[in-house]
Amino acid sequence: MLTAGNALELRAQVENESCERAFDASRARLDFPILRHRIRGREIAYLDNAATTQKPQAVIDAEMSFYTSECSNVHRGVHTLSQRATASFESSRDVVRDFVGASDRKEIIFTRGTTEAINLVAQSFARPRLQPGDEVLITEMEHHSDIVPWQLVCQERGAVLRVVPVTDSGELELEAFHRLLGPRTRLVGIVHVSNALGTINPVRDVVRAAHDRGAVVLVDGAQAVAHIPVDVQELGCDFYAFSGHKLYGPTGIGVLYGKRELLESMPPYQGGGDMILSVTFAKTTYNELPYKFEAGTPNIAGAIGLGAAIRYLGALPFTAVMRHEDELLRMATEALSSLPGLRVIGTARRKTAVLSFVLEGVHPHDIGTIIDLEGVAIRTGHHCAQPLMERFGLPATARASFGLYNTISDVEALYQALQHVEEIFR
Fold first, then answer.
1. CATH code of the domain covering residue 83
2. Judgement on whether residues 195 and 343 belong to the same structural domain of the protein
3. Does residue 344 belong to any structural domain of this protein?
4. Is 382 helix (H, G, I), strand (E, B) or coil?
5. CATH no. for residue 333?
6. What is the span of the domain harbouring residue 392?
7. Is the same domain home to 17 and 80?
8. 71 flagged as catalytic
9. 75 & 204 share domain
10. Are residues 149 and 259 in the same domain?
11. Are residues 137 and 240 in the same domain?
12. Predicted TM-score of the model (pTM)
């Protein structure tokens, strides 16, 4: 029987033939051991990549190798294991520097993730500088991690948090942005790619306008780095934050890029070991960048795993991977839009990897629970973007999000599982 999904698959195989020769997602899928498992007898259709991506064997091997052949603390030992661990750890910093196009390895700070990176900037850069009446400007589509840290420092310092609205299609209202960007704006926080909508924001234009007003810009790149090229010098941003676990790397590791002159002007975020040069009871002299912001024993294995994840991605034809993901998003959007009562949330002209939707009369949690029985993993809820959900008048959405190992079969599985949901509730 030829369903809409089957027809979609046949058409895509023809349209995408040249791309498939350049990038074979089915072959790449074999690099991810967890995807060989079956759930209730079914092959996993893992479509929750915006929450976290699966890990290739190369990342697993890198962490395993650290624990089995190099395990030691970094920066503090003269013995062989410590020297090996330090070399591997710092090698990953160089990999990250090249990956995001930073001009100096000292501009790469290892953190626990995007959330800690944004909090670091809020507390170490914004908090000492904000005065009563100053403004921090963010957008309506921000993740909670790019809302709450600014609320905290604004409340403490008497500053004002202003919010740029989004359109019904989920795009930034640029006229409103320019109107709200004023002489008291000290910092602009903007997500590169919305985790709830998939919208790709015009970051270069935002940075240019903010700099013209003397404001600095922090970009939340958690959802961007795995799906689109990122060059922080080309973007011109002052800070850029992302997490390893959304980049096929380990959990508990992330990165803050910051312009060197800004990082050097900022006080430490935390105190402790490794962020100091000398300590007396009278005075502490802080370490140089990047170690000034890396207090305590870092997630050494995580950093090494992140370096392995970036190397893995670097060996792939990234342009072809992007085309592949964009094609999956297009096919899924077309197929799901044909289902009665289904409404896509977020129809921006420029978007990637994320498909949020609601189904009339069915709570998103019910959708997620039912299709999980058929081996399809999606995310349901407010996606840590409650203000955005409120803007669309929704308590939650169902969200399918794509990665490099997803295939047309995953789109077909999602479509068929949602048909089953409709049968149950209709």
1. 3.40.640.10
2. no
3. yes
4. coil
5. 3.90.1150.10
6. 4-30+317-425
7. no
8. no
9. yes
10. yes
11. yes
12. 0.93
Short-list 244, 228, 243, CA closest to 192: 228
User: How far, in Å, CA of 238 to CA of 102, rounded?
Assistant: 11
Handedness of CA 23, 24, 30, 34 (dihedral sign): positive
Q: How do residues 162-191 score in pLDDT, each as one tens digit?
A: 999 999 999 999 999 999 999 999 999 999
The CA distance from 401 to 46, in Å, is 9
Question: Strand (E) positions, 54-184?
Answer: 108-111, 135-139, 160-164
136 inside domain: yes
The first and second tokens of residue 263, run together, are 């990082």
* pLDDT class of 8 with cuts at 50, 70, 90: very low
The separation between the first and the last C-alpha atoms of the chain, rounded to the nearest angstrom, is 22
Same domain, 305 and 326: no
For 12-16, 94-98, 122-126, 136-140, which range has the lowest pLDDT when averaged over its residues? 12-16
Task: Please list the helix, strand and coil fractions of the chain in percent, rounded to the nearest 5, in that order.
Answer: 45, 20, 35
How many distinct structural domains can be found in the chain?
2
Structural domain includes residue 292: yes
Tokens representing 169 are: 């299609």
**Sign of the alpha-carbon dihedral angle for 280, 286, 287, 292:** positive
Return the SS3 of 284: strand
User: Are 135 and 111 contained in the same domain?
Assistant: yes
What's the chain's length in residues?
426
Of 329, 336, 423, nearest in space to 4 by CA: 336
Euclidean distance between CA atoms 335 and 331, whole angstroms: 6
Q: Which of 304, 246, 397 is nearest to 92 (CA)?
A: 304
Q: In which residue are the tokens 């959405």 written?
A: 397
In a domain, 39, yes or no: no
The residue type found at 72 is S
List of residues 6+ apart from 396 with CB closer than 8 A: 363, 364, 365, 380, 381, 382, 389
In whole angstroms, what is the distance from residue 6 CA to residue 288 CA?
A: 58
| Cis ω for the linkage preceding 290 (within 30 of 0) | yes
Q: How big is the CA angle at 119 (ends 396 and 235), to the nearest 5 degrees?
A: 85
Helix spans in 258-357 (H): 260-265, 300-314, 318-337
Last residue of a domain, one of 270, 292, 314: 314
